[in-house]
């Protein structure tokens, strides 16, 4: 398979996996708190990765560990809790649409922090995407008074974390294998996640049937949606550009929206328009 086809193939696989993650989070929150869900997601992913990639840790030079720790914090630790808390108040499909702002933040951070150049068209793309984001949030708040759309800010912060993570990996970890990066990330996070989990009531409620049911969804989310997906994502970053890799978030809302329809979620026409504006802005910012 050519490199170009492989890039697009990996992008589509990631979209299918991560687009399904939001409904898994929603199912997990039925019986778990955001802290429990986020911690279990990290623990399941870490155990899986240490089983398959323990030897790859020896391939990480000592000087690279500071970047492994940074990418673990930005790319996984903070976002898993931010998304978990956000979806206690906003729909999974809206969360996925807001996450599509990641390429815009990738562009901005790449330009102003990592020294990448950008065109005027890309700047306009950023502005258009942010307008769509505000339209989506404000209309959602008006039409869903029972939901607290201030929680949408958590998704925006998580998207910025993802954007920082993409640029850090491209600049400082491109010479490492995706398995080494991913396993290193979760080896760093395993103990902190267990500490957070120990401060919740999870172990006293783990025997409850509804809790066990939710845990199965998070097991899938941790192993497939986090562990395997991150290996694919880091490979995609290395063989393409930060903007192309983060453009997976254009496709994620499509998958998440169909899952939302299955789960009786809905979007207003104005929110559809806001989503279209976001995707158009992202298209402008990412186009060569």
Question: How would you describe this structure to a colleague?
Answer:
78% of the residues lie in helices and 0% in strands. The protein is built from 13 helices and no strands. It has helices at 3-28, 34-53, 65-86, 92-99, 102-112, 120-143, 152-172, 178-198, 202-205, 209-239, 242-246, 248-262, 269-286. Helix 1 packs antiparallel against helix 10, helix 1 packs parallel to helix 12 (248-262) and helix 6 packs antiparallel against helix 13. The longest helix has 31 residues, at 209-239. It is globular, with a radius of gyration of 18 Å. It starts with a helix and ends with a helix.
What is shown here, in short?
This protein is mainly alpha-helical. Helix content is 78%, strand content 0%.
Present the secondary structure layout.
Elements: H1 3-28, H2 34-53, H3 65-86, H4 92-99, H5 102-112, H6 120-143, H7 152-172, H8 178-198, H9 202-205, H10 209-239, H11 242-246, H12 248-262, H13 269-286
Helix pairs in contact: 1-4, 1-10, 1-12, 2-3, 2-8, 2-10, 3-7, 3-8, 4-12, 5-6, 5-7, 6-13, 8-10
């Amino acid at each position: 398979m050519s490199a170009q086809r492989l890039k697009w193939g990996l992008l589509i696989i990631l979209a299918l996996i991560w687009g399904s993650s939001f409904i898994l989070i929603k199912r997990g929150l039925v019986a778990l708190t955001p802290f429990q869900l986020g911690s279990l997601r990290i623990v399941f992913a870490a155990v899986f990765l240490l089983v398959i990639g323990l030897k790859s840790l020896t391939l990480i030079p000592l000087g690279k560990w500071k970047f492994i720790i940074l990418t673990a914090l930005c790319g996984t630790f903070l976002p898993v809790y931010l998304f978990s808390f956000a979806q206690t108040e906003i729909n999974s499909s809206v969360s996925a649409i807001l996450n599509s702002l990641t390429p815009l933040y990738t562009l901005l951070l790449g330009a102003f922090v990592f020294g990448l150049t950008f065109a005027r068209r890309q700047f306009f793309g950023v502005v258009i995407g942010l307008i769509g984001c505000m339209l989506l949030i404000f209309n959602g708040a008006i039409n869903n008074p029972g939901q607290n759309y201030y929680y949408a800010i958590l998704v925006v912060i998580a998207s910025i974390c993802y954007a920082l993570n993409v640029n850090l990996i491209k600049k400082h970890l491109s010479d490492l294998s995706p398995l080494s990066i991913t396993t290193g990330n979760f080896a760093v996070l395993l103990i902190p996640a267990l500490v957070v989990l120990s401060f919740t009531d999870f172990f006293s409620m783990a025997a409850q049937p509804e809790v066990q049911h939710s845990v199965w969804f998070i097991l899938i989310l941790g192993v497939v949606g986090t562990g395997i997906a991150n290996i694919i994502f880091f490979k995609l970053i290395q063989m393409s550009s930060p903007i192309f890799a983060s453009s997976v978030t254009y496709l994620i809302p499509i998958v998440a929206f169909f899952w939302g329809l299955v789960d009786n979620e809905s979007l207003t026409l104005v929110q559809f328009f806001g989503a279209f504006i976001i995707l158009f802005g992202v298209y402008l910012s990412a186009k060569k």
